[in-house]
């Protein structure tokens, strides 16, 4: 099993449970192999700093980062595997979708849980973290339709260090981090973007996350993709 998006390829990996492993039950994880943009010139120290900041965000409605791997030609993120796919697929279908139509009770449960997860991302640090790419394909569902926000921090890891960052600094400034509202991000799906971002400038804030989440709520209420042709929203 694997899926592909702009931020890389995600593999479903079964760990342990083999003969002689000493583990009674296998553990299933998601391994994301990061794709790298033109600016992704990471040093190990910078990469570790960004990933460890992502790993400190713990909440029942946010996908947990479990481990990472860094090499010059390979960068991997290991996180919990959420079995029922994305809210986008649950709402609009897809090749691998075997879920029944979402009931109103399930939609309300998903909306409330995702709101709690996004609130935690915004409030868990005085650095005012920003997700920057909230959309229905970034909300994953487990067997009980509990929602998990995924993709937090991926824009920064794919785009790499800011060109304006001080290369002699002992660690990257959060002024240039994925978590800061002053960071210029790679563009998410345009239909979910706040108008002030869509019109130019590229600056994302927590208020932009709230707007994007509002678009997701409208998508859940109407069952319609927030764009006429729907292109690009499932990536």
TrEMBL record:
<dbReference type="InterPro" id="IPR011009">
    <property type="entry name" value="Kinase-like_dom_sf"/>
</dbReference>
<dbReference type="InterPro" id="IPR001245">
    <property type="entry name" value="Ser-Thr/Tyr_kinase_cat_dom"/>
</dbReference>
<dbReference type="GO" id="GO:0004672">
    <property type="term" value="F:protein kinase activity"/>
</dbReference>
<dbReference type="Pfam" id="PF07714">
    <property type="entry name" value="PK_Tyr_Ser-Thr"/>
</dbReference>
<dbReference type="GO" id="GO:0005524">
    <property type="term" value="F:ATP binding"/>
</dbReference>
<feature type="domain" description="Protein kinase">
    <location>
        <begin position="1"/>
        <end position="235"/>
    </location>
</feature>
<dbReference type="InterPro" id="IPR000719">
    <property type="entry name" value="Prot_kinase_dom"/>
</dbReference>
<dbReference type="InterPro" id="IPR046959">
    <property type="entry name" value="PRK1-6/SRF4-like"/>
</dbReference>
<protein>
    <recommendedName>
        <fullName>Protein kinase domain-containing protein</fullName>
    </recommendedName>
</protein>
């Amino acid at each position: 099993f694997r899926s592909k998006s702009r931020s890389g390829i995600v593999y479903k990996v079964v760990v342990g449970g083999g003969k002689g492993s000493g583990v009674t039950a296998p553990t299933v994880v998601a391994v994301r192999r990061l794709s790298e943009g033109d600016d992704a010139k990471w040093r190990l120290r910078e990469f570790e700093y960004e990933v460890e900041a992502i790993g400190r965000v713990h909440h029942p409605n946010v996908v947990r980062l479990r481990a990472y791997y860094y090499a010059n030609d390979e960068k991997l993120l290991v996180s919990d595997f959420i079995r029922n796919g994305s809210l986008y697929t649950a709402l609009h279908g897809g090749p691998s979708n075997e879920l029944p139509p979402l009931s109103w009770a399930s939609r309300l449960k998903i909306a409330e849980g995702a709101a709690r997860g996004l609130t935690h991302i915004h409030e868990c640090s005085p650095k005012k973290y920003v997700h920057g790419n909230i959309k229905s394909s970034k909300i994953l569902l487990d067997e009980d339709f509990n929602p998990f926000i995924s993709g937090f921090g991926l824009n920064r890891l794919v785009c790499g260090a800011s060109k304006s960052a001080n290369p002699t600094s002992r660690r990257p400034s959060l002024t240039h981090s994925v978590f800061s509202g002053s960071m210029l991000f790679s563009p998410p799906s345009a239909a979910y973007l706040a108008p002030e971002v869509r019109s130019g400038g590229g600056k994302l804030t927590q208020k932009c996350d709230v707007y994007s989440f509002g678009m997701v709520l409208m998508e859940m209420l109407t069952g319609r993709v927030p764009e006429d042709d729907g292109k690009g929203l499932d990536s």
